[in-house]
Amino acid sequence: MSQVQPGCLWVVATPIGNRDDLSARAVETLRGVAVIAAEDTRHSRPLLLHHNIATPLLALHEHNEREAVDAIVRRLLGGESVALISDAGTPLVSDPGFRLVRAARAAGIRCIPVPGACAAIAALSVAGLPSDRFVFEGFLPPKAAARQARLRELAGEARTLIFYESSHRVAESLADMRDAFGAPREAVLARELTKLFETVLGEPLGELAARVAADPDQQRGECVILVAGRGEEADARLAEGQRVFAILREELPPAKAAKLAAAISGAPRKALYQG
Ligand code: SAM
């Protein structure tokens, strides 16, 4: 019989595209547990069939998480082993599972990770941006005003930033990032990782935003956006932008002065003037 011990919650990462990115240990665990809690049972069934996993499934998604958690914790306390999976990648990473893991740990149940794919880490591993320190920001707010406010808060962050974004908002978000962080800031768009149309584009934000806006093919599929943290060069650009803005403001309305100062210095316009 497998290594699977009773009464434990196994948190199992599944592929983010390529079905073969399921580890041997994940397969053994998913075959050996009493039940698999899945975000969407219909979505996960083809993957499980592909790997000859016939374990029963139960649904655990954001709409039933509260009730499902109680039932699962009772089963775990009764000695059953349970695996948690999400539609893709690592559960709890912009996916359901937080309440279950928290409740299980509070009940004294052992939670065991079976690590594997995660889109953020896969993207970071090929982006060529500093990877010693990074910040995972998950999804930005969908509404423009809230998204722009969040990005302004992040403009001074020195660590590499990682965002998840849906394909129909990727062009808008890149344009907002260009405005908040400045056109010269280095960025990477990692799309459809491990799938047929995998693409990793690395360019300054100004060029990346323009390229994606002009090419509907770059607005398809699943994507991760990575942005380099603010470096010393950015600090120098901002200082130069502020200097130029102060001069131009003597003669021009502030919005116009900020636009010109941003174009001359490469500093983000919104960091010079909020208007
Ligand atoms: N739990 C998942 C993980 O570990 O990466 C993330 C789930 S979240 C609901 C889905 C988002 O992850 C997508 O909108 C996209 O931003 C990113 N993503 C998932 N699969 C991807 C892929 N193959 N290529 C690029 N991004 C992907």
TrEMBL record:
<dbReference type="InterPro" id="IPR035996">
    <property type="entry name" value="4pyrrol_Methylase_sf"/>
</dbReference>
<dbReference type="InterPro" id="IPR008189">
    <property type="entry name" value="rRNA_ssu_MeTfrase_I"/>
</dbReference>
<keyword id="KW-0808">Transferase</keyword>
<dbReference type="GO" id="GO:0070677">
    <property type="term" value="F:rRNA (cytosine-2'-O-)-methyltransferase activity"/>
</dbReference>
<dbReference type="InterPro" id="IPR000878">
    <property type="entry name" value="4pyrrol_Mease"/>
</dbReference>
<dbReference type="InterPro" id="IPR014776">
    <property type="entry name" value="4pyrrole_Mease_sub2"/>
</dbReference>
<feature type="domain" description="RsmI HTH">
    <location>
        <begin position="237"/>
        <end position="274"/>
    </location>
</feature>
<dbReference type="GO" id="GO:0005737">
    <property type="term" value="C:cytoplasm"/>
</dbReference>
<dbReference type="Pfam" id="PF23016">
    <property type="entry name" value="RsmI_C"/>
</dbReference>
<keyword id="KW-0698">rRNA processing</keyword>
<comment type="similarity">
    <text>Belongs to the methyltransferase superfamily. RsmI family.</text>
</comment>
<feature type="domain" description="Tetrapyrrole methylase">
    <location>
        <begin position="9"/>
        <end position="209"/>
    </location>
</feature>
<dbReference type="Pfam" id="PF00590">
    <property type="entry name" value="TP_methylase"/>
</dbReference>
<keyword id="KW-0963">Cytoplasm</keyword>
<protein>
    <recommendedName>
        <fullName>Ribosomal RNA small subunit methyltransferase I</fullName>
        <ecNumber>2.1.1.198</ecNumber>
    </recommendedName>
</protein>
<dbReference type="InterPro" id="IPR014777">
    <property type="entry name" value="4pyrrole_Mease_sub1"/>
</dbReference>
<comment type="function">
    <text>Catalyzes the 2'-O-methylation of the ribose of cytidine 1402 (C1402) in 16S rRNA.</text>
</comment>
<dbReference type="InterPro" id="IPR053910">
    <property type="entry name" value="RsmI_HTH"/>
</dbReference>
<keyword id="KW-0489">Methyltransferase</keyword>
<keyword id="KW-0949">S-adenosyl-L-methionine</keyword>
<dbReference type="InterPro" id="IPR018063">
    <property type="entry name" value="SAM_MeTrfase_RsmI_CS"/>
</dbReference>
